[in-house]
Amino acid sequence: MAIIGTAPFPERIRFFDGQRLFAADLQALEQFNREMRWLHNQSLHQAGVASGYAVVGNRDDRQVTIQPGYAIDAAGREIVLTQPEILQVPPVATDGQGNPVYFDLTVLYPDDSLLKETETRDGICVPRGAVRLREKPVFCWVELVSTSDPPGPGALATDRQAKLAAVNKQVESGMRIRLARAEVFNCKLNQALSVAQRRNARTSASPFLAAGRTSPTDNTWEITTSARGILATLKVHTADSQFRTTPRYIARAGGDRELKVTVQAKTLDLVLDGFPRVDEPSATGFTFSLLIPSILLDLTGITMAEVAAALQPALKSWYVEWLGIEG
Q: Are the CB atoms for 81 and 62 separated by under 8 Å?
């Protein structure tokens, strides 16, 4: 902030009866209070949306609606919108190769040069001047580009690429606040806006946790065999938990592990176990797999095909218990 690093110490503005005031005195008071408030925001909050700023935009829409809201940037400055704002979708067809283009809808604290005069007054022996300036947030679509990867071999970054990278860094640093992410194709939204990437100015005191258990009646296990053993996989859906980003999943398989396998007219009792693994995690689910090593089967003299045949009906009683941690 301006106070930190530019002044040896804060100064409190004081007045007394009969004092002759200048505009600079009142401006200094307003500046002091504003910068102390920004310092408070910067020290105790993170850059992001504190309240409101709901964004509505559905598939095939050519414009989006931004509702009133309050956000804080990395410098602690308040970005306030008091009336709904309608913004046109970027007029972009494709990325030049027939693919959609991705944009972040951002809001920026307005520069002094962009403030509009809302009231002026005549001065005494001085020209008429502004006494009120309207702070209106600046909205901008920012095309997504890499800010860390250098250009490929033999490639030179163009001025446009350099400018886009600089703006993307402002989004990453919190000087521009991300409100939503859009996928644009043929000058309209290719799918509904995503708000999963926006950051909350109020940090959570603890991570978001959700847990669940698949229903045996809905299980659609798949069994494959290889030299490593028998692999049982199941698609687990977690959309009801409403994770906003991909959490860290912990999962285990439950159910009856005791199997009866008949080999050469002799029935053997087996207890199966294996190594669990979570693959393809996302905010809406993951793939759970349980590997039963072939070495365990080799000790019994039973082939994998025989165990797989007995395992198929037993899987109807199996389920997956999971825990998702989003922080």
A: no
Question: Tokens standing for 53?
Answer: 């700023």
Give pLDDT tens digits for 58-107.
999 999 999 999 999 988 999 999 999 999 999 988 888 888 999 999 99
The pTM for the full model equals 0.58
- At residue 165 the predicted structure's pLDDT band, cuts being 50, 70 and 90, is confident
The residues spanned by each domain of the chain are 46-189, 209-326
Q: Give the Cα-Cα-Cα angle 254, 279, 323 (nearest 5 degrees).
A: 50
Q: Are 50 and 174 in contact (CB under 8 A)?
A: no
d(CA 254, CA 252): 7
Phi, psi at residue 264, to the nearest 5°?
50, 50
Q: How far apart are CA 290 and CA 294, in angstroms?
A: 13
The string of DSSP letters for 85-118 reads: EEEEPP----SSSS--EEEEEEEEPPPGGGPEEE
Our separate counts of H helices and E strands in the chain read: 4, 21
Q: Which residues of 224-248 are buried (b: 16+ CB within 10 A; e: fewer)?
A: eeeeebbbbbbebebeebebeeebe
70 sits in which H/E element: strand 69-72
CATH number assigned to the domain with residue range 209-326, chosen from the 4 options 3.40.50.20, 2.60.40.2080, 2.40.30.170, 3.30.200.20: 2.60.40.2080
